[in-house]
User: What shape does this take?
Amino acid sequence: MKKIFSILTLAAILLLSASCEKRERQEPVSIKIQLQFEEAAFTVEGITVTLSDAGETTSYEQTTDNSGAATFMVPAGNYKATAVYKIAPQDGERIAYNGRANEIVVKPTSGGSAPFLINLLKVVSQQVIIKEVYNAGCLSADGQGSYASDQYFVIYNNSAEDADASNLVFGITDPYESYSANAYYDEGGNLLYEHESWIPAGGALWWFKEEHIILPPYSQIVIAVSSATNHTAVNPNSVDLSKAEYYWMCNVGLGQMYDRARKYAVDDNIPQSHYLTGKAFAMTPSGWPFSTASPAFFLGRMPRAEAEALCLDSDNYDKTLGAMFTCIKFPKANIVDALEIWTKGNEERSHGRFSADVNSNYVSLATALGYSVYRNVDKEATEALPENAGKLVYNYADGTDDVEGTTDPSGIDAEASIANGAHIIFSETNDSFIDYHQRKVATLKK
Amino acid sequence: MRFQIVTFVFSLLFTFSAYAQNYTVSGTVKDKDSGKPVEFATIVLESSEQWAVADANGKFTIKNVPAGQNTLNVSCLGYVTETKSLNVSRDLTELFIQLVEDNLKLESAMITAQEKGNSATTSRTIDKKALEHVQVMNVTDISGLLPGGKTSSSTLTSAQTFSLRGGGSFGTAVEVDGVRLTNNASFGGASGVTTNNIASSNVESVEIITGVPSVEYGDMTSGVVRINTQRGKTPWAVTMSTSPMTKQVSVSKGFGLGTTRSGASLGVLNTSVEYTRSISNKMSPYSSYDRKQINLTYSRQIAEGYFHNKPLRITAGITGNLGGSDNKADPDRLIESFSIGKDNAVRANLTANWLLSKKWITNIELLASASYGDKKSRARSRYSESISSVSMHATEEGYYMGAPWVEGGENLAVLIDPGIWYNTMGYDDKPLNTRLSLKANWARNIGKVNNKVKVGVDWTADKNFGIGTYAEEPATAPSWREYNFRNVPTMSNVAAYIEDNFMLQTGLDSRLNIIAGIRNDNTVIPGSAYGVTSSISPRFNMKWTAFTEKTHGNSFLKELSIRASWGVAAKQPSYGVLYPQPGYSDLEVFRSTASSTNTVYQAYYMIPQSVVYNPDLKWQRDHQSEVGIDMNLGGARISLAAYYNRTIGAYSEIANYKPFSYEFTGPTAVQGLAIPAENRSYTISSDGIVTVHDKTGALPSITVESTTRRQFIPEYTEDNDDNPVTHAGLEWVIDFPRIAPLNTTIRLDGNYTMTHSVYCDILPYYLNNRMSADGSLLKYIGWYYGGHNTSNGSMSSAAKANVTITTNIPKVRMIVSLKVESNVFTTSRTLSERADGSARSYVLADRTDPLSYIEGKSIYDEEGYTVFFPESYSTIDDPATQIPYLEKLKWAKENDPELYTDLSNLYITNTSENYTYMKERLSSSFSAHFSVTKEIGNMASISFYANNFVNLQNRMWSSRTKSWITMNPSVYYGLTLRLKF
Assistant: This one.
């Protein structure tokens, strides 16, 4: 009997051993990533290329050789690769080359095959940029829900010269949310206007009412999107947007539907000259200029009369069926800056709404926690300014990398440095992921 | 003409009847096993419609029974109904009937819906045994027992209604012991009555008439569900049921109330008490529905004194229910918020059936019933506002400026401070439905003819004693207006009907049965513009029984009968249709700048939007046709029924539009005024001009400038939809002969259903969320064929088939059933077409250009983007003139860009779904359900069911959306223990 038991036990052990999955050890594969600009090899040595797996949990960095190629030894899998190359400012103009390859599929047999390509785009710095967007609200006063009528954004003069903000226009793309059905993608997953000279602008365009607005070097304008009121009076978690120097992305002049749909208000302190105006060519479903969850927001430069004519020109309407808005075709050439925000947790089902030459990536933002999207500091350019000596504050701690968010890799605390008298130059690569991070506390929150 | 023929036939029959002879039928009813008398057994002579109730000795007597063939039915709660054929040609005084206890010792125990064999239309009954076996918690669960029916695992937390043959719940009549449950006194619109507050444990049987019913039934268009609760003398019965979502416990007992000094029975009182509690989610068992019900039914036969030879049977019942929904305790909700809804009800009925057995009248029956509901609900909600908000309470058209609440003031527009607050609102709904009906029967045999005439009058009255919406904390309540239901006049309906049921014996076992009737309904609403509205509902049923097993028992085709029906039924509108709660449109006309405390004054123009009286409104009607065949083929009982129903004049609300202008004042008009924002108050004049005041009185008031704005506003009318909705289908039931060695029966049942509707009226529509190119609200309305929606119709067809295998093992008193249900196929298509089938929508060649539509290419052929143009449009300056749309759009594209932009707002496209008009074909799906009932002696029984027990999570492929759909419910199970003593 004992023998039989022993034999059975042995058989069971053998069976279990045989049934255990044999994990194959994955041998690293040598792959090459070639940088390319205008269909020719970008033969600059020393550019850092970052390769990260699809889930962005593991990343590898290598620098390019003199042929503009970087070599990696990585296990087979799906990867994304990015590369940014900034050249020293010349005559106050900063130029960067950046590129991204989203689908690098490394197979065990990929070793020695043709290199993967990253096409670089040339980004010339702009004077006025989007510095901060606070769109996702905060916790309500009783902690029982969200409070999201306190949206604002900040534009900033990222240069040492006065900037004319008079002919800036503000707009959003279609659809309203990054995770909504996007009619501008074909069945192959290609953005229909990727190679067009325009992007669809949805709902309305806004611009300043004042004839002349000069933005001094390294200064900013705060524009309240919803209610330009003192929100702290009803919710201590929120921000005060009632200051006379602030602007209001107002409904006035946009048409009667905005009066009805946008149940927002402006503090009596804020002069009428600070009410933005603009032209609506279709009403947004909720009447909000941009989403509380995942806006794709852009800053353009165009004379007001021209912008108004663009909004009224029915030939310029884009009536692509399935689009959320009636859109107008806004010329890419007039876009100064663009920012794409995706809701944290919805990245998997989101689609980019800018073509790569306008903005090539996104930044994630968690909703209703009082977080904002804040621009990263261009460390090299900022530290290169002689007037900043001794004024820069480091050890930035307002990022959200400690709560699975992002932070400013420069380590410079921009707001503290500005308060210290420093001039900050922010990153401009046309890549929202590189240019922005999720900030723990909106800058206007006191 | 039709009416005259019927009258002639009746007259003839009355004349013949005067010469018939009468006899006495009497006997004894005893329990077959014990030999004890069965007191309160009901004895009915079907042909002559005479009856008696057995006394304490089981004895009964029916006098004045006309000579001829008759059928004796003897029934009693807890026993199998016994049927005997009688040839009454002399006094039959020694009849001895033995009743067999109805339990699982019988081989004939059935747990499926049974065809009502003697009916000339489709009618099925579901008895207590079947109800217990499937463990019904809500009576709508029995829908799964109908041909092609699907087993559901519903809970009481969602409202359940009956819907027969796809006809909609609003038109389905539901009666409990003769008490009609209706939503006529409800203001909730055209929806069917919910059955959640009907106790399921004391239901004795349910009859479902899906064919053309007797003219006795009015105020319905889609079938009748008759629920009979238990009555009579019964032992103590305790039932305990449990399933993941629902628990139930009930106790019942039927008491004999003793005898009079003369020995006559004082009747019997049947009582039952039930408590049922359902939750909606096992993970969060806080949203619940409770049903606490008590039911008393008293019945007595009086056959002494004046009633000797003409007995009177009285049945009186009263049911009280306390319960409703409650999610107060749900910790997932916001702290203070809750939602509680009562579903209390009292239902009372009195039936007096007097057997006169006269030459000119057989029975007279009086039915009085009342059903009162207390459906009061309360909800406490959280409000959060960053700036002031205005709650509107005005009911008179005009401008209103929001102002802080003043105790005792008018408070027509209340300015509420910003912040977070909670407020409780209530809705008081107390419908009362009363009914009084008198019915007389007259039955006679003349040779081979048996004729029954039924004449009756019906009076119903519906009234609501609720006060409608109310605010418990008015100072912070959201916008609401008082609409006291008590002020709405009572709606009465007086109906008269006559029906002749003619049966001709055409052979030894063949007969022809013709039922013809007509019903006239008159709805009266005193003091209302609707006044009196009449409708006529003729109905005909014919059944020819060619032969039965009696003569063809040795043939392969043992039984054959064919039936055909046609009829009209009308559905009375509910209060929700005739007197919908008035709507109010509050148009913001002013918004101030904010003070430092975020106080923002706002003004509104209020436009009442009551439904306009429509003198042409008719009652919704259903034209029903049905043919059926019943046969016994080699022992297999086959029942087929094909129907074709058309709903005509369904109630619908339509909108017309009229131009409207008002004064608008924006914040720019008041920003920076000399009066500090903190000190301001605002008023608005009757012509819309805003004035700013200094609350301190230091500065003079300032009147600010406004601009005039124009737009269209809707005006609603209740109307009849002129486009019929067609429901057609086929139902089949095949009961194969019992497989004796296995004690097993197999039933195949199923249905094929088809619906088709296309809406063809040309209606105006105003897109109030669109702007004209100049920034003003859209200045045009479009006139759309079939309304403005992308589609104007739909068609669908589906086939469902079920197999039920039932094994009854009498030796161990157990019955086991396995039911496999399948959706054989389901197809549907969204339609956009005209009455003649021609195109209403067009395929676009270029999805960015609406004028690239392709004429002649069908939208149904392949996926694509489509466009649908209005027939014409009108301008706000000249709304009466309709301008052809498409022609103008083409012209504007070339000549007037602004007009082109504006008119572009009016065409309708299929938005993101370019498969909108593709035919949907869902692949087949299956599920299997198991039930078992076991009796443990005579004292106890236990039932268990497991729905979808093999967890067939079948995914059905949608050919339209190219995606998978999960169809079957998840595994669900339940257990019931019944004790009798």
